[in-house]
Write a structure and sequence with these properties.
The chain is an alpha/beta fold and about 350 residues long. About 25% of the residues lie in helices and about 25% in strands. It is built from eight helices and 15 strands. The strands form three sheets. A seven-stranded mixed β-sheet has the order 4-5-8-9-11-10-12, with helices on one face. Strands 3-2-1-13-14-15 form a six-stranded mixed β-sheet, covered by helices on one side. A two-stranded antiparallel ribbon has the order 6-7. The longest helix is centred in the N-terminal third of the chain and has 19 residues, at about 1-20. The chain is globular. It comes from Pontibacter populi.
């Protein structure tokens, strides 16, 4: 009897604690996702001024899009020390307490600037990345070649799937001549195992929105920095796969560039336009002019500290608002699409 009374008195406290925990676990899928926030290029030794604005958006999910630290080392102790600096940041701790954290990497957190499969410490670096993200020690992802993953949020009929690619671990070489990246016409970005996995994720997706994130830009072709267009066979394969699988509501996410922009194109066989939201520069941005050709760009190019936001309005169709925001939570670019 005393045990029953104790449990009865404890129940209201448990309910309060449960309701206070906002984090929507993937396994439960109890409510639709309202806000997904993302960013890249976070140098751990620069002021971390973006986190208050990120937290102000009350995200359900935060997506790292690469260069989450600037490691650039074959020494895993160095990489771990830099990851720990981010993990100890109060603003990031607040985000961790309230949102699901997922992500992928790019070259600087991979460990080798502009690197691909030639990086000899990639296996060890992969484990540090999973530690940083919070991947369980017994997760099958820790045994695969690369940090690709997928995550589905929300109840049936109102789901968002976040598909994150690894465009480093199995990427073929990319030469530079006089600081200009050369085109590798037959080179591969992902490796066959990851290509097969991606096709399966798209073909079998039951989500209404399918986000595909990776470290570098997919659509832009004219900029002279790293991009999928340096590997035209892989870029075509990716875009053809998106169209052929008929996955609904595909939106691309990318980082790397120290600028932000939204790109848009029409693909043969797709019933809706394909958008790419690039958000890059959480701690530092390109200091030159904000003039750069991109025939796919909609809205402005942003060279101020920024992060990306996707807001979902669930009705008969889902409306997605794509935003680039700044350190004071001001909006720089805003696009809407209905799927």
């Amino acid at each position: 009897m005393q045990h029953s009374t104790f449990l009865f008195r404890l129940l209201p406290l448990l309910l309060v604690l449960t309701s206070a925990c906002k984090k929507p676990l993937e396994a439960t899928n109890v409510k639709p996702v309202e806000t997904i926030v993302f960013g890249s290029c976070n140098r751990q030794d620069l002021p971390q001024v973006i986190w208050p604005a990120v937290n102000q958006n009350n995200p359900d999910v935060w997506v790292w899009l690469g260069d989450n630290i600037y490691g650039d080392s074959e020494n895993m102790d160095v990489l771990k020390q830099k990851y720990d600096m981010v993990l100890q940041e109060p603003g990031y701790k607040q985000l961790q307490a309230n949102a699901n954290i997922v992500g992928t990497w790019d070259d600087h957190d991979y460990g080798l600037n502009d690197g691909g499969k030639e990086f000899k410490m990639r296996e060890q670096s992969q484990q540090l990345f999973w530690d940083f993200i919070g991947e369980p020690a017994n997760s099958p992802r820790r045994k695969q070649q690369g940090v690709y993953s997928s995550h589905t949020y929300g109840p049936e009929g109102k789901q968002v799937k976040v598909i994150l690619l690894d465009s480093r671990y199995n990427r073929d070489s990319l030469a530079r001549i006089n600081k200009v990246y050369q085109t590798n016409y037959t080179g591969d970005m992902l490796g066959e195992e990851q290509w097969k996995w991606l096709e399966n994720e798209l073909r079998n997706s039951k989500a209404q929105i399918n986000l595909i994130g990776n470290g570098i830009q997919v659509l832009p072709e004219e900029q002279v920095f790293e991009k999928w267009a340096n590997f035209p066979a892989s870029r075509k394969r990716l875009l053809d796969m998106i169209a052929a699988t008929n996955a609904p509501g595909v939106i691309l996410l990318s980082g790397d560039r120290h600028i932000a922009e939204i790109s848009k194109t029409e693909l043969p066989g797709m019933s809706y336009p394909l958008y790419e939201v690039t958000s890059s520069g959480m701690t530092h941005v390109y200091s030159g002019g904000n003039v750069e050709p991109n025939k796919y760009r909609v809205g402005d190019l942003v060279n101020k500290l920024n992060f990306g936001v996707l807001q979902f309005n669930w009705a008969d169709n889902v409306q997605v608002e794509m935003l680039i925001k700044g350190k004071d939570n001001e909006t720089y670019v805003h696009e809407k699409a209905v799927y």
